[in-house]
Amino acid sequence: MSILDKQNDLPAFRQAVRGWLGDVVPSGWKARMASASNDEFIAFQRWWMAERSKAGLAIPHWPKDYGGAGLSLRHLIVIADEIARADAPQARMFTISLIHLPGTLFPHGTEAQKRRHLAGVAKGDVWCQGFSEPNSGSDLASLRCRAVRDGDHYVINGQKIWSSYSMYADWCILLTRTDPDAPKHRGISYFIMDMRSPGVEVRPIRQANGRSEFGELFLTDVRIPAENMIGRENDGWRVAQATLASERGVIAFEGAERQRYEIEAFYRRALASGAPWLRDDQLRREFVGFLAEIQAGRHLLRRLLEENERPGASASVLPSIVKLSGTALRQRICSFMTRIAGVDGQAFAMLAEAPFGSPMFEFMGAFTGTIAGGTNEIMRNIIAERGLGMPRV
Amino acid sequence: MATTASETAGPPDQATLDALRDGVAGVLAEQSGSTAVHAFIDGKRPLDRDLWSQAASLGWLGFGIPDEYGGLGLGARGLAILHAELGRQAAPGPYIATLSAAQAVADAGNDSIRQAWLPRFASGEISAAVPATPGSAALAWSGQAVSGTLRCLGAPDAGVLLAPVADAWVLVELAGADVTATPMWDPTRTVIDIRLQQAKPAALLDDGAGAALTRAMALAVAADSAGAARSITERTIAYMKTREQFGQPIAGFQALKHRAADLATKLAVADEMVAHAAERAAADADIWVMLAKAEVTEAAVFVTTDCVQLHGGVGFTWDFDPHIFLKRARLNEVLVMANPVLRDQAAAGLAAVTQAGRSALELEP
């Protein structure tokens, strides 16, 4: 009997997911991945996606017509919760494939695009996002990467940046400028680009935490078939809103659940070993304050996921509130971990035990939360203007 | 509106609570708006008395009291809603003291004590006084009578005091007692000094009353703070949209927008802390109510302080609202127990729960 056969009995479904994770998640995967080469990372990500696929849990939230299981939000919460509880791998490399691509194609793609590309995701296609440019970050709509029609193709020239895992990607969802004379929001078109097309060059960006998860795309006379446009010509900004809105807390939910288990494991170890910070009044008080914020954040995320199911959810600024509060909290927690680790925590090597085995690594990594996906300053603009009705001047 | 809830058995569902919140909010918005509160503060209107009789007739005073004693049995979640709405309108009156004392009696009293007292609280016949910081001092107990002085939260005409003696708690009727009101910066609640000499307690409760009182007060104060902070933030943003400088509404300046967004985010987190504390009120060694009181009252002081500042000059005037909420937030911050001590107690509770092999962080039952 498969896991999906138990979907009508939520506790049994949870037990089945838990059992599957217990069987499939290899012990010590985290330590291995901490020092893995790029090839090992990719192989591991592909293996994990294949295992999820075998269990029917690769794309469980998609409609059955497109190969999904049509599972409800409550099931997704159970899956994410159990994955976090088991400390199972994240499907990092497949974030765009699993969330942003369907979030875009379901509302705006042609039937042919959906049939072809959604099927590929279940088979392990890696997608990346070609949105930001060196001169178009927070001001995304000012993007300049050009697409010029040439017969039944468009020819692309320009540069993209901050494209996660683009070094390993098969496909790219790409924003281009098709009308440089129109107002900036009205001259943008949205394409599906084959990353193996001639003229696509990817260079990894070395990050401040030593990793290279993002790539820079250099596009020189890349030819994209016109049928690969999503939506109408010059209507790409509207389509992009669906992409940008597609995440709405799903990744953050799993992240918050993981953080809860990390913090608990950290605390249990501190208690067992009589960690000195527990005897420091200020540090101990700071720590218990984090717990209240962690619980509040988990409640907020559940509220957000419920809200997503209701009509009109796209007008809510709760995703921005969740991102702003959650990523700032993560930064403060990582800062705390760094302070209590002393000089040892500044050594480049991992400390003996995870979680927070390398507090500086986590602290440096926390900037991906506060900067990526719209900086927290952009979140504040959104909360103030759309949520609080403060005027744009 | 509130009476229908008494028909529900078991914990109230979310729809019931939402309807109650709307009902309470509607009445308070009408009765305890800015003009009414300013008139009260300036001694021109007995808003506290008017609201008290309104609250009694609408069943608010029985929100947390079990049905069989004349209440609505709405539990901690219902009480959190009521206190948040009272905070929103800076409603004057001895609600935190009375409703929290009622919870302590409901939790720690035997049936005859409950029968004797809970209907009187639910009907509004008497209000209660409780120590402003319940753990800080106790009355002397001769075995027959109590003596001593306590600084209490409560109205000058409070009918009964709930107070600690050595290892128990007593209810003492206050008719004819020496009660002095202390003028406070917060104009919407009253603190009184009660002097008792050989007063005979009306009832004796075990030490569980102290924990129950502290828990109920912590939740009430946290909820009141969250409501007060949200309300003044909304009023402040509304003001910023009308106040023009440099030829535009100041709400258009990005520096101020970002401050407002941060306040809104703090409020969203604070609301969830209160909701979580109400859900887990008596569980996990009271960790979550203690943390909610510490975190939310400090957030409310931050928010209300910023609301004075965001108003500019008028924020420093008596006639505008921000100072009322700031003063309410500052009193809330120091009630119940000092916040660092609450955090220490929460940490001790967390250690105990963890060492017992349990998790204090489960959300799903």
UniProtKB/TrEMBL annotation, chain A:
Keyword Signal: no
All residue ranges annotated as the Acyl-CoA dehydrogenase/oxidase N-terminal domain in the record: 12-125
Acyl-CoA oxidase/dehydrogenase middle domain: residues covered: 128-222
Pfam families (UniProt xref): Acyl-CoA_dh_1, Acyl-CoA_dh_M, Acyl-CoA_dh_N
Tagged with keyword Flavoprotein: yes
Acyl-CoA dehydrogenase/oxidase C-terminal domain ranges (all copies): 234-387
Tree of life domain: Bacteria
Gene Ontology annotations for the cellular component aspect, listed alphabetically: plasma membrane
Keywords: FAD, Flavoprotein, Oxidoreductase
Entry cofactors: FAD
InterPro entries for the chain: Acyl-CoA_Oxase/DH_mid-dom, Acyl-CoA_Oxase/DH_mid-dom_sf, AcylCo_DH-like_C, AcylCo_DH/oxidase_C, AcylCoA_DH/ox_N, AcylCoA_DH/ox_N_sf, AcylCoA_DH/oxidase_NM_dom_sf, Mycobact_Acyl-CoA_DH
Molecular functions per Gene Ontology: flavin adenine dinucleotide binding; oxidoreductase activity, acting on the CH-CH group of donors
Protein family membership: Belongs to the acyl-CoA dehydrogenase family.
Protein name: Acyl-CoA dehydrogenase
Naturally occurring in which organism (per UniProt): Rhodopila globiformis (Rhodopseudomonas globiformis)
Classification lineage: Bacteria, Pseudomonadati, Pseudomonadota, Alphaproteobacteria, Acetobacterales
